[in-house]
Amino acid sequence: MKSISNLIKRSRQAWSTYRMILKSLIGGALMLTGIQSSLQAQEVQFTRPSWYFGAAAGANFNFYRGTTQELNSALSAPTAFRDGFGVGLYAAPLIEFHRPDTRFGAMLQLGYDNRSGAFKQVSTPCNCPADLSTDLSYFTVEPSLRFAPFKSNFYLYGGPRFAFNLNKSFTYKQGVNPAVAGQVAPADVKGDLNNVNDNIISMQIGAGYDIFLSSKSRHTQFVISPFVSFQPYFGQDPRSIESLNVTTVRAGIALKLGRGHKIVAPVVEAPLPEAKPTPKPEPKPEPVMVVKPSVIGNVYKVYFGFNQWDLDARSTADLDILAKDMTENPAVNVEIKSHTDSRGPKSYNMKLSEKRGKSVIDYLAGKGIGASRVSANAYGETQPVNKCADGVPCTKAEYAVNRRTEVIIID
């Protein structure tokens, strides 16, 4: 019996139990990713969710240290086993709460947690090889504090682990002395370890990364999160006797879904044109360009979603009216003033307002309005229409009215 061969065999057997689960999660993620490009083209209507529900699955890489010899009251191995390694399944439903663009949140996972292991082969006094494998498994409850240091998709988490023993079985195998012919190996001994702690309180720290599979135009949004965690041996003594302890490194994937809140855009209607006065007849009128005073000073406002510069259906409808007025009045020009809300770096907001102004210029150009008739200025977050200046907390509706581009008809 070769310890390396046994270790590889047990690792493959452990892996096979959850390999299909991981494949299903990854396959589902790829299918959702395939339709992501079409979703991005839709209008932004919902925020990112605050509550997420889903499931996590992964592998526990269990590193046993210390010794064990007394397996139960009826069996003590002639030679103590030292150190071991095993791979076990982790599978759990999960709940998460963290608001968009914030650092702190909370997580809760509870489910099946396997801590199986195979120990290094030892030699008994008869010069016979002996192997020991254990199949410890638990129902685990893992509440964690979630921290996103950069308010991004990367996050750290940590918290306690409460484990309740479900299985404590072992398999003890003893071979024969290779130097003695004709020996028959004893039958494998299977049973339950004694003095196993029913409850374990330990801790873990980990990191993960959220990959959104759905755009903000979807009410229900899917997220896939690869994660890894480290669970040190502190408090993880599986038995109340001997010096055996276990350190675990867990790697896996979580699939989550949540529902965003609908973004209600402020309704801003363009002012109605004034009644156009009837020009006085002249004796012999000549064809001249007459600027209609009724359109001078008209203001058309275009609003944008957070960190967006694309035009939506309402914006293009208002700009169609503007283009019509300019076509009918070829002597008038327009001044474009673009703004952002106060969130984000000032330099970024200035570039964002330039992009918003360019979107309006490009749209008017497509309607036949020449560049010589258009002037544009970007103001970033410097000219809010309300109290929402830098550092002042505001509601979503208050932020929304500052994300605007004003188009003014001038002489």
List the helices and strands and how they pair.
Blueprint: H1 3-34, H2 36-40, E1 51-72, E2 75-97, E3 104-114, E4 117-119, E5 122-123, E6 129-147, E7 154-174, E8 189-192, E9 199-209, E10 211-212, E11 220-231, E12 245-259, E13 299-303, H3 313-328, E14 333-338, H4 346-366, E15 374-378, H5 396-402, E16 404-410
Parallel strand pairs: 14-15
Antiparallel strand pairs: 1-2, 1-12, 2-3, 2-4, 3-6, 4-6, 5-6, 6-7, 7-8, 7-9, 9-11, 10-11, 11-12, 13-16, 14-16
Structural notes for this entry:
The protein has 411 residues and is α+β, with helices and mostly antiparallel strands. It has 2 domains: 250 residues, no CATH class; 118 residues, 60s Ribosomal Protein L30, Chain: A, CATH 3.30.1330.60. It contains 5 helices and 16 strands. The strands form 2 sheets. Strands 1, 2, 3, 4, 5, 6, 7, 8, 9, 10, 11 and 12 form a 12-stranded antiparallel beta sheet that branches. It has a 4-stranded mixed beta sheet with strand order 13-16-14-15. Strand 2 and strand 3 form a beta hairpin. It is rod-shaped.
What's the count of strands? 16
**Helical percent range?**
10-25%
Shape: rod-shaped
Compute the separation of the termini in Å. Answer: 95 Å
Question: Radius of gyration, rounded?
Answer: 34 Å
Q: Quaternary status of these chains?
A: single chain
Poorly predicted sequence stretches spanning 5 or more consecutive residues: 35-42
Provide mean pLDDT, rounded: 85
- Give the topology string: H per helix, E per strand: HHEEEEEEEEEEEEEHEHEHE
The percentage of residues in β strands lies in 35-45%
- Based on helices, strands and strand pairing, what is the structural class? alpha+beta
Number of helices: 5
Number of discrete domains: 2
Main β-sheet: number of strands, strand sense, barrel status? 12 strands, antiparallel
